[in-house]
Amino acid sequence: MWLFAALAAVGDTAGAEADRLIVLRMAGGDHLALGELYDRHARLLYSLALRIVRERSDAEDVLQETFSQVWRQADRFEASRGTVVGWLVTVTRSRALDRLRQRRTQREGAADFDRVADSLADQSRALDLQLVTAEQANRVRQALAALPDELRIPLELAYYEGLSQSEIAERLRTPLGTIKTRMRQTLLRLREALAGAMS
Amino acid sequence: MSDALDHDALRELIALHAIGALSGAERSAVESHLATCAECAQELRAFAPVGMALAQIAPQVDPPATLRAAILAAAQPAKTARTTSSIVPWLAAAAMLAITVGMGFYMASLQRRIRALEGDLRAALLRVEDGERRVNVAMRAAADAQTPVSVLTAPDVRRIDLAGQAAAPSASARAFWSRSRGLVITAANLPPLPAGRIYQLWFVARPAPVSAGLLTPDAGGSLTTTLATPADVPNPTALAVTIEPEGGVVSPTGAMYLVGAAQ
Which of B104, B128, B153 finishes a domain? Predict the structure, then answer.
């Protein structure tokens, strides 16, 4: 199954430690280390990028930008602040959402300075994210799919399209308060699904 | 708005923050709150796996085989470039330092220049002030000189000779009075004034004498004084000088020293 394949290389603390050593070598200029990091995570990151930007060529660009940034900033990565994979996912999602917003901006002709600032700050904000297990991811996927549209769509707009809550409210023509309540509800459901998988 | 958010409101946002769905003010507010609130930090840890799961549940697709080589190729020169380009920040820092030092010197020289200019300005102001003072003195002197002349040349000038009286038989005086321009009086042989006393000149007129001013002779008993006199003084019959308390009086009280008819 694709999920198991994707998670085969990582998902445990040994994987996180291996990532950390690779980034250390990259910081020292070890070019081979970058290849190893790519081999371990490119599929996960490419899939995430593609889910966001929807076009293969854009997803490839996003991955280029992501690995380029990670290579340049390897010496600034601090393991105490988070995991390598958390960093990679954060950077990939940021670059992909940038691309999405670029398209929107080109279409609507308005730049969003808040977003630009957030995007610039992302490199210092990698959350301490551990990859979840294949089983957990599967449960979350199923839980999300089982949700009614009114709960699932706001979350997807937030995570995969980078829309703010007020933008979502506008897009769905739903009061902002309702959107906030629903998104929190959805996230609580997904958390329960994860917890169920862990127990 | 974000500042007003309290713990409960911020806690509601933690789940969204965990999936990277906050931006701007809300995101900043949550981040600073997380630094001080253990409960919310725990909440964040609880939701973090949801964010990671959302990244992992995207349909998995293999990237094109060529992408790996392209990324490694792009990174290689970048790495070399980094070594080279690492001099750029140093150059920038050096430039900044040079500019800073330069600015420091410039500022110091500006300050010196400002201090010098301030000194010059003060000196110039003093010179101006001095000049003004001199002009005032000169104008006053000119006016002083002008007044007797203008009195003496006035069309309505009257000469009044005053003669010493019993208290000062040898004293004498001559006055030139113009109703419009004032009075000039020259006196001689006036007795020295006792302490606290002064000579006062009077227009002797009806219904009562009118003061024309105070007179202070020099050590030799002489004086020449110009007095501005009231233009509305009643037509005087005479001019008289009395001795009075220092500061003068409204109507004469002391002995008469000089007197002369105005006709």
Answer: B153
- Cβ of A129 and B51 within 8 Å? yes
Within a 13 Å sphere around the CA of A148, how many CA atoms are in the beta-carbon half?
Answer: 3
Average pLDDT on B149-178 reads: 89
Cβ contact, residue pair A35, B68, below 8 Å: yes
- Do B21 and A6 count as a contact with CB atoms less than 8 A apart? no
The count of domains in chain A is: 2
How much is the pLDDT for A171?
93
Domain boundary among B36, B61, B86: B61
**Same-domain check for residues A24 and A96:** yes
pLDDT tens profile A94-132: 999 989 888 877 766 544 445 544 554 554 455 566 788
Whole-complex ipTM: 0.86
To the nearest whole Å, the CA of A1 is away from the closest chain B CA by: 10
3-state secondary structure of B166: coil
Host domain of residue A185: 134-198
**A68 neighbourhood in chain B, CB within 8 Å:** 71, 74-75, 78
Mean pLDDT by 10 residues, chain A (199 residues): 41 78 91 93 96 95 93 84 88 91 69 50 56 87 94 94 92 94 94 79
> Is A194 within 8 Å of chain B by CB?
yes
Q: Which residues of A touch B79 (CB under 8 A)?
A: 29, 31, 71
Is B47 in the A-facing interface, judged by CB distances under 8 Å? Answer: yes
Q: For residues B186 and B218, what is the distance between their CA atoms, to the nearest angstrom?
A: 12
In a domain, A129, yes or no: no
Statement to judge: residues A55 and A105 lie in one domain: yes
Residues 2-21, chain B, touching A (beta carbon < 8 A):
12, 15-16, 18-21
**Do B149 and B163 belong to one domain?**
no
- Which of A59, A63, A86 is closest, CB to CB, to B71? A63
Whole-angstrom Cα Rg for chain A? 18
**Number of residues that this document lists for chain A:** 199
Instruction: Report the distance separating Cα B33 and Cα B40, nearest Å.
Output: 8
Q: What is the pTM of this model?
A: 0.56
**Distant-in-sequence, close-in-space partners of A40: CB < 8 Å, separation ≥ 6:** A9, A10, A15, A18, A19, A22
Which phi-psi region, left, alpha or beta, contains residue A162 (left: φ > 0; alpha: ψ -120 to 50)? Answer: left
**Could you tell me if B206 and B162 lie in one domain?**
yes
Interface test with B, best of A89, A133, A182 (most B CBs within 10 A): A89
Look up the domain containing B231 and give its range. 158-261
